[in-house]
Design a protein that fits this description.
The protein is 36% helix and 13% strand. With 385 residues, it is an alpha+beta fold. The protein has two domains: 37 residues, no CATH class; 343 residues, no CATH class. The strands form five sheets. The protein has a four-stranded antiparallel β-sheet with strand order 2-3-8-5, sandwiched between helices. Helix 15 runs parallel beside helix 17. The longest helix is centred in the middle third of the chain and has 18 residues. The radius of gyration is 25 Å and the shape is elongated. The N terminus is likely disordered.
């Protein structure tokens, strides 16, 4: 079999790479080792959509210099609030070649997690979980992106899936790929879908032909509903979030929950959807969700404060928890209990009494604050908050 047959039939041992579609070749030395081949975009898009992605795009793997500048400026201004995920190493997360040497393309995928919120259970205090954490949507996203990566690897290219990691600035990647526009909430809004999506990408050394889209123009216009909806005023400018005020981040913060934001937390036990719930495109999408409701939207607060460490982590371990410390979950549960608990409920009093003598000084302090908020100061005694 000669080299021409090898290239056309995608078989034989004389070539280093095979592609989904050969869109051109240049034989410089008479060997197909020197053939330059590219992957046809339409094939990858078809694979991604068939695997369950709601939007697929492609972008070049050049460094995201504007995003790097934004991250460094916001970190210098203290807006990062100690977040390590986004701000630990901006030079790495904004340069795909640090994660994959020789990266040429990014195949970007979005998975819509919109689903109706179930009614609040009655009869006991429950905490509200943000919709992006009702299930492990990133696992579903990775599975779909793996299908794209497998196709690339199967045709001789390197490919690596990056999702929910600090290797890559996923929203900037999605914007470059033309999936959507930057909302004032700092989320990416995808036309016809909204911002309730999880994002990820496949880094590859393949050259991908076709599919390059222009960035989607702003469609928010003068709308500022997300800014007004934030319960702590954390969106300090269009597209700029002060993490020091963001409830979703404060719930993941190590140490004490800031006293000045405890009342604003309300019943939120993990995450915050307020800016997204207020967004008109999301409201339209929520009228016709693709997924059924789930019981994971509400979790029992008293149970959180009574079960042992292993049981707590078995149920909630997929949440981001600093140092994998279950007491962070209990800390948040105490703040929620202070906001929504019933001082006449014997179970509420019992868990507060238990927390007031807990081994953790942090939990003792939050329990004392909760007791005082509920009008049960006599339980707290001399414990400081």
């Amino acid at each position: 079999m000669d080299c021409d047959e090898c290239v056309v039939q995608h078989t034989g041992a004389c070539h280093d790479r095979v592609v989904i579609h050969v869109v051109g070749r240049e034989i410089r030395s008479g060997s197909c080792h020197d053939v330059e081949m590219a992957v046809e975009w339409h094939e990858l898009e078809t694979i991604g959509l068939a695997a369950g992605l709601d939007a697929v795009g492609v972008a070049g793997a050049e460094p995201f210099l504007e995003t790097l500048g934004d991250l460094e400026a916001r970190k210098a201004a203290g807006l990062h609030g100690g977040i390590q995920f986004t701000y630990r190493n901006p030079r790495r997360s904004t340069d795909p070649s640090v994660t994959m040497t020789g990266a040429r393309s990014l195949v970007v995928g979005a998975l819509d997690y919109t689903r109706p919120a179930p009614d609040r259970p009655s009869g006991e205090p429950v905490g509200r979980v943000a919709s992006y954490s009702w299930e492990d949507y990133y696992a579903e996203l990775r599975t779909a992106l793996d299908k794209v990566a497998e196709a690339l690897r199967g045709h001789g290219h390197r490919a690596r899936v990056v999702a929910d990691q600090n290797n890559l600035v996923d929203r900037a990647v999605a914007h470059r790929a033309g999936l959507g526009w930057w909302g004032k909430s700092s989320n990416i809004l995808i036309p016809g879908v909204g911002s309730m999506v999880v994002l990820g990408a496949v880094l590859t050394d393949a050259e991908i032909t076709g599919g390059r889209a222009e960035p989607v123009a702003d469609r928010c216009g003068t709308c500022t509903r997300c800014i007004a909806a934030c319960p702590t005023g954390a969106i300090v400018a269009p597209g700029v979030v002060d993490a020091r005020r963001c409830l979703a981040w404060l719930l993941q913060l190590d140490g004490d929950f800031p006293v000045e934001f405890r009342a604003a937390l309300g019943d939120r036990i993990y995450g915050c959807d307020d800016c997204q719930d207020a967004c008109p495109p999301n409201q339209v999408r929520q009228r016709s969700p693709l997924r059924p409701a789930t019981a994971e939207a509400w979790v029992p607060i008293i149970e959180m404060l009574t079960v042992d460490d292993d049981s707590l982590m078995e149920r909630y371990g997929r949440w981001y928890i600093p140092r994998r410390d279950p007491d962070i979950i209990r800390r948040n549960a105490l703040v929620v209990l202070a906001n929504i608990g019933d001082r006449r409920d014997p179970a509420t009093e019992a868990v507060l009494r238990s927390a007031l003598v807990h081994r953790s000084e942090m939990l003792r302090s939050h329990a004392a604050w909760a007791a005082r908020q509920l009008g049960l100061s006599h339980l707290a005694g001399s414990v400081t908050t």
